[in-house]
Structures are given as structure tokens and as C-alpha cells.
Amino acid sequence: MSDVDELISVRIAAAMPTLTPIHQRMGAFVLANLFRAATMRIDELADAVGASVATANRFARTLGFTGYPAFREALVRGFEATIAPVERLRSALQTPASAAEVFDASLAQAASNLQLAQTSIDGNKAQAMVDAILAARRVFVLGYGASAFLAGLMEHGLTPYCANVQSLALMGGPSHAARRLFTASKDDVLVAIAFPRYVDDTITLAKQARDHGLRVLALTDSVASPLAHVADLVLAVRAERRLAANCDTAVLAVIEALCDAVAHRAKRSVEAAAGLTEFVLPWLVTSAHTTRRSTNKRHQHTEPRES
Known about the structure:
By secondary structure, the chain is of the alpha/beta class. It has helices at about 5-15, 20-30, 35-40, 40-50, 55-60, 70-75, 80-95, 100-120, 125-135, 145-160, 175-180, 200-210, 250-265, 270-280, 285-300; strands spanning about 140, 165, 190-195, 215-220, 235. It has two domains: about 5-80, CATH 1.10.10.10; about 105-280, Glucose-6-phosphate isomerase like protein, domain 1 (Rossmann fold, 3-Layer(aba) Sandwich), CATH 3.40.50. The longest helix has 22 residues, at about 100-120. The N and C termini lie far apart (about 80 Å).
């Protein structure tokens, strides 16, 4: 809970004995649902407790605010990054748009994020991150929420070219990740991925890894990110999206660029890629195999049956 939320909670709790019964009910609802209350319009809060809009406004003024907008603004202050996607969606829904227009706008924003990534990523930092990955005995990749899938894709991209890559994102949860990181050493690196809305487990585990002697490489949205504060090296990727928390397109593009750079620099990368392809060949559908199957099926339908 932020300092702002705590101040409002204290203010409501102190005022409760003097409030009218309906205002007490409203105060109790807000105390039990701080985040939800921060996302609600005045009519939504009034409906939630069976009160009128005027009552909700008087409740805010009783707490010392000029009105409900000022009260809600104070609540929102503690949840800016978390609430931002909700507010963007609320604002977008107030402007009529066709599905095609929303589709085009989303693609345009993804393209803008990609362009910004290409022009703003520090090449020297990217080079240093590639060097650290190649020099590591083991590479751990960590992310939770949507970043868990990005971590899995990074593990997939690095596996052919690094001796030991392990995604800690999807198996066993944070306690399992902590156990794996406990076995790590200063010869290993952790690549941590976190974007708003930041997941606390990622930040905590990255700090634990750093304190344990690992070098922490961060993919996050800015140097102001809580992950950036515990990382040794940061690549900042803007990932804004109109109707959701993040646009993963630019982040994935940066991950793919890192994997390509590792592949280009790794020793015996061609042999590794060829060996992996040959190993998984039994599970791949080749064009020759597809053609052969299609030809066989065609013959089965065209050849006359013996009577």
C-alpha cells in the first residue's frame, strides 16, 4: 500500500465514528476495496453501496476533499501504473470506433514502439548484455505475468547457442525459482524481465540473485523501473499500449535481436543450429514429406479398384 493510500485509510478510519450510517457504509467499502474504489466513477461507487451521487460527494467533502474528483484523484495516485490501462480503456470506449480502426491503431502503436526501440536502444549496453550471456556458465531467465511467456521465448532462442539456459518463469512458482537461484554462482547471470504492471516476485528474486553474487541483466521499460534499481545492466524498451497494460511486440523484438546477436557471436553456432535441427527433425513436417503424403492420397482416390 502506498503512502497516499495509507493516509486516506487513516483519514477514513479516524472519521468513521462521526460519519452518518450511509457514509460509514461508504467508508467501509472504500477501506475494503482501495484499488477498486480508485477505478470507480462517482455513480459506480454510489451504486455499490446503495447511495446517491450527492451522498458520495458529501462523503468526499466530509473527509476534507473539495469533492469526489479530488478524493478519487488522491486514491489513484497510489496506483498510477496499475490503473493506467483501465483508464485508457475507459477513455477509448467513450470515443466511437470500428473494429478496423481499433485494429489499425493497435498495429500503428506497435510499429511506433518498434521504431523507438530501434532508435533508442543503447548499442553498447546491448553489446555488453550479449557478452555477459556468452560468458556465463548458466543463464537464468525470469519473468512473471505476461513476461513469463517472454522469458520462455528467450530461453527458446538462446538454447542452441548457450550451454545451459533455464527459464524460471513457469514451473514451480517463485519459491522454486529461489531454490534454483540459490544453486547459482557469480559465474551465472540472471536475465529478468518486468514491465508495468511490475510483479513484485520478479523484483524480489532479482534482488536476491544480485545479493547472491549473480550479475542481473534487466529488460524493462525505463531506468525508473523498480527492476532497474537492482540490475547491473538495463535495456529500456518502451512498451505502451492503448487498451492494455503493455505492448509485448517491441520487447519480443529486442529479445529476438539479443538472441540473433548471441547466435552470431557464439562459437560453432552453425554446427549447433544444424545439430538441433537434425535432432528435432522427426517432429517437423518437411515439404518433401507433405508432397509425398499428398501424392499418395491422390493416387488412392484416382486408381480404379479391382473388382
